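Listing 4. Sequential folding, example run.
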Amino acid sequence: MRIWFIVLCQLFALLWAQAAQAQEVVDVAKITCDQFLAGRVGDFTSMSFWLSGYYHGRRSNTVVDVSAVQKQVHSVMDYCLSHSDALVMDAVKKVIEAAK
Protein backbone atom coordinates (compact mmCIF):
# COMPACT_ATOMS: atom_id res chain seq x y z
CA MET A 1 0.00 0.00 0.00
CA ARG A 2 2.82 2.38 0.84
CA ILE A 3 4.49 1.77 -2.54
CA TRP A 4 1.28 2.69 -4.37
CA PHE A 5 1.12 5.93 -2.41
CA ILE A 6 4.72 6.78 -3.33
CA VAL A 7 4.11 5.95 -7.00
CA LEU A 8 0.94 8.05 -6.99
CA CYS A 9 2.78 11.01 -5.45
CA GLN A 10 5.58 10.75 -8.01
CA LEU A 11 3.08 10.59 -10.85
CA PHE A 12 1.26 13.63 -9.50
CA ALA A 13 4.55 15.55 -9.16
CA LEU A 14 5.52 14.65 -12.72
CA LEU A 15 2.18 15.77 -14.17
CA TRP A 16 2.17 18.97 -12.11
CA ALA A 17 5.69 19.88 -13.28
CA GLN A 18 4.65 19.47 -16.91
CA ALA A 19 1.60 21.67 -16.41
CA ALA A 20 3.71 24.36 -14.75
CA GLN A 21 6.00 24.50 -17.78
CA ALA A 22 3.16 25.29 -20.20
CA GLN A 23 3.56 28.67 -21.85
CA GLU A 24 1.05 30.99 -23.38
CA VAL A 25 1.97 32.52 -26.72
CA VAL A 26 0.60 35.96 -27.55
CA ASP A 27 0.86 37.77 -30.88
CA VAL A 28 1.23 41.31 -29.58
CA ALA A 29 0.48 42.77 -33.01
CA LYS A 30 -3.10 41.47 -32.74
CA ILE A 31 -3.97 42.75 -29.25
CA THR A 32 -6.83 45.24 -29.32
CA CYS A 33 -7.24 48.08 -26.88
CA ASP A 34 -10.30 46.34 -25.45
CA GLN A 35 -8.31 43.17 -24.71
CA PHE A 36 -5.45 45.19 -23.24
CA LEU A 37 -7.67 47.21 -20.91
CA ALA A 38 -9.58 44.11 -19.80
CA GLY A 39 -6.33 42.31 -18.95
CA ARG A 40 -7.12 39.37 -21.22
CA VAL A 41 -3.60 39.10 -22.63
CA GLY A 42 -1.52 38.86 -19.48
CA ASP A 43 -0.19 41.05 -16.75
CA PHE A 44 -0.98 44.70 -17.55
CA THR A 45 2.27 46.10 -16.14
CA SER A 46 4.47 43.57 -17.93
CA MET A 47 2.70 44.18 -21.24
CA SER A 48 3.04 47.93 -20.81
CA PHE A 49 6.78 47.76 -20.23
CA TRP A 50 7.23 45.29 -23.09
CA LEU A 51 5.40 47.57 -25.51
CA SER A 52 7.37 50.59 -24.36
CA GLY A 53 10.64 48.70 -24.67
CA TYR A 54 9.72 47.46 -28.13
CA TYR A 55 9.07 50.93 -29.50
CA HIS A 56 12.02 52.51 -27.76
CA GLY A 57 14.24 49.68 -29.01
CA ARG A 58 13.11 50.34 -32.58
CA ARG A 59 14.38 53.89 -32.10
CA SER A 60 17.68 52.58 -30.60
CA ASN A 61 16.83 54.11 -27.24
CA THR A 62 17.96 51.74 -24.47
CA VAL A 63 17.10 54.06 -21.58
CA VAL A 64 13.92 53.30 -19.61
CA ASP A 65 12.48 56.27 -17.75
CA VAL A 66 10.01 54.55 -15.44
CA SER A 67 8.01 57.69 -14.65
CA ALA A 68 7.75 58.52 -18.37
CA VAL A 69 6.58 54.96 -19.11
CA GLN A 70 3.91 55.27 -16.42
CA LYS A 71 2.68 58.53 -17.98
CA GLN A 72 2.68 56.91 -21.42
CA VAL A 73 0.70 53.96 -20.07
CA HIS A 74 -1.97 56.36 -18.81
CA SER A 75 -1.99 58.10 -22.20
CA VAL A 76 -2.37 54.74 -23.97
CA MET A 77 -5.21 53.84 -21.61
CA ASP A 78 -6.95 57.15 -22.39
CA TYR A 79 -6.51 56.53 -26.11
CA CYS A 80 -7.76 52.95 -25.79
CA LEU A 81 -10.84 54.01 -23.84
CA SER A 82 -12.01 56.01 -26.83
CA HIS A 83 -10.70 53.59 -29.49
CA SER A 84 -11.52 50.12 -28.14
CA ASP A 85 -11.18 48.40 -31.54
CA ALA A 86 -7.74 49.90 -32.26
CA LEU A 87 -4.61 47.79 -31.96
CA VAL A 88 -2.56 48.48 -28.85
CA MET A 89 0.66 48.70 -30.85
CA ASP A 90 -0.88 51.49 -32.93
CA ALA A 91 -2.01 53.26 -29.76
CA VAL A 92 1.47 53.06 -28.23
CA LYS A 93 3.05 54.30 -31.45
CA LYS A 94 0.73 57.31 -31.54
CA VAL A 95 1.35 58.15 -27.87
CA ILE A 96 5.13 57.89 -28.21
CA GLU A 97 5.15 59.94 -31.42
CA ALA A 98 3.00 62.62 -29.77
CA ALA A 99 5.46 62.83 -26.87
CA LYS A 100 8.41 63.65 -29.18
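-- end of first protein; second protein begins --
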Amino acid sequence: MLAMAPQAQPGQQVPVWMNIVPLVLLVVVFYVALIRPQQKKQKQHAELLKTVRKGDKIVTNGGVVGVVVAVQDKTVTLRSADAKFEIIKTAVSEITERSGETSQS
Protein backbone atom coordinates (compact mmCIF):
# COMPACT_ATOMS: atom_id res chain seq x y z
CA MET A 1 0.00 0.00 0.00
CA LEU A 2 1.03 3.58 -0.58
CA ALA A 3 1.76 5.67 2.47
CA MET A 4 -0.50 8.69 2.56
CA ALA A 5 0.58 12.05 3.94
CA PRO A 6 -1.12 12.82 7.22
CA GLN A 7 -4.12 15.04 6.69
CA ALA A 8 -5.80 17.32 9.15
CA GLN A 9 -8.77 15.71 10.76
CA PRO A 10 -12.12 17.41 10.14
CA GLY A 11 -12.15 18.73 13.71
CA GLN A 12 -8.52 19.98 13.69
CA GLN A 13 -7.41 23.39 12.52
CA VAL A 14 -3.98 24.49 11.40
CA PRO A 15 -2.46 27.06 13.80
CA VAL A 16 -2.82 30.66 12.60
CA TRP A 17 0.93 31.28 12.67
CA MET A 18 1.41 28.46 10.13
CA ASN A 19 -0.67 30.48 7.66
CA ILE A 20 1.17 33.74 8.36
CA VAL A 21 4.75 32.41 8.06
CA PRO A 22 4.71 31.99 4.23
CA LEU A 23 3.29 35.50 3.81
CA VAL A 24 6.00 37.01 6.03
CA LEU A 25 8.70 35.10 4.14
CA LEU A 26 7.31 36.39 0.83
CA VAL A 27 7.43 40.00 2.08
CA VAL A 28 11.05 39.55 3.24
CA VAL A 29 12.08 38.10 -0.14
CA PHE A 30 10.44 41.00 -2.01
CA TYR A 31 12.19 43.53 0.23
CA VAL A 32 15.62 41.96 -0.21
CA ALA A 33 15.27 41.29 -3.94
CA LEU A 34 13.43 44.39 -5.16
CA ILE A 35 12.97 47.24 -2.72
CA ARG A 36 16.42 47.43 -1.06
CA PRO A 37 18.45 47.51 -4.30
CA GLN A 38 16.21 50.27 -5.69
CA GLN A 39 16.67 52.37 -2.54
CA LYS A 40 20.44 51.92 -2.81
CA LYS A 41 20.38 52.99 -6.46
CA GLN A 42 18.31 56.09 -5.62
CA LYS A 43 20.75 57.05 -2.87
CA GLN A 44 23.72 56.71 -5.26
CA HIS A 45 21.93 58.85 -7.89
CA ALA A 46 21.21 61.55 -5.30
CA GLU A 47 24.91 61.61 -4.34
CA LEU A 48 25.84 61.86 -8.03
CA LEU A 49 23.53 64.86 -8.47
CA LYS A 50 25.11 66.61 -5.46
CA THR A 51 28.57 66.27 -7.00
CA VAL A 52 27.78 67.67 -10.48
CA ARG A 53 29.90 70.75 -11.11
CA LYS A 54 30.94 73.09 -13.88
CA GLY A 55 33.15 71.43 -16.50
CA ASP A 56 31.91 67.86 -15.92
CA LYS A 57 31.02 65.86 -19.01
CA ILE A 58 27.62 64.23 -18.45
CA VAL A 59 25.04 62.03 -20.16
CA THR A 60 21.33 62.73 -19.72
CA ASN A 61 18.52 60.18 -19.53
CA GLY A 62 17.61 61.16 -23.09
CA GLY A 63 21.11 60.34 -24.33
CA VAL A 64 22.40 63.90 -24.76
CA VAL A 65 26.13 64.17 -24.07
CA GLY A 66 27.53 67.54 -23.09
CA VAL A 67 29.62 69.65 -20.76
CA VAL A 68 28.12 71.40 -17.72
CA VAL A 69 28.27 75.18 -18.08
CA ALA A 70 26.46 76.12 -14.85
CA VAL A 71 24.77 74.40 -11.92
CA GLN A 72 21.75 75.85 -10.10
CA ASP A 73 19.62 74.36 -7.31
CA LYS A 74 17.30 72.34 -9.54
CA THR A 75 18.73 72.78 -13.03
CA VAL A 76 21.95 72.28 -14.96
CA THR A 77 22.99 74.29 -18.01
CA LEU A 78 24.60 72.01 -20.56
CA ARG A 79 26.53 72.73 -23.77
CA SER A 80 26.41 70.06 -26.46
CA ALA A 81 28.02 70.84 -29.84
CA ASP A 82 26.61 74.25 -30.83
CA ALA A 83 23.52 74.01 -28.62
CA LYS A 84 22.98 75.12 -25.04
CA PHE A 85 20.36 73.35 -22.90
CA GLU A 86 18.94 73.89 -19.46
CA ILE A 87 17.81 70.60 -17.96
CA ILE A 88 16.56 69.51 -14.56
CA LYS A 89 19.20 67.82 -12.41
CA THR A 90 17.27 64.57 -12.16
CA ALA A 91 17.71 64.11 -15.93
CA VAL A 92 21.45 63.55 -15.43
CA SER A 93 22.10 59.82 -15.65
CA GLU A 94 25.88 59.70 -15.29
CA ILE A 95 29.04 61.75 -15.17
CA THR A 96 31.45 60.41 -17.77
CA GLU A 97 34.35 62.74 -17.08
CA ARG A 98 35.13 64.98 -14.12
CA SER A 99 36.46 68.50 -14.54
CA GLY A 100 39.88 69.40 -13.15
CA GLU A 101 38.42 72.13 -10.92
CA THR A 102 37.91 71.61 -7.21
CA SER A 103 34.40 72.02 -5.83
CA GLN A 104 33.48 75.13 -3.82
CA SER A 105 31.85 73.11 -0.98
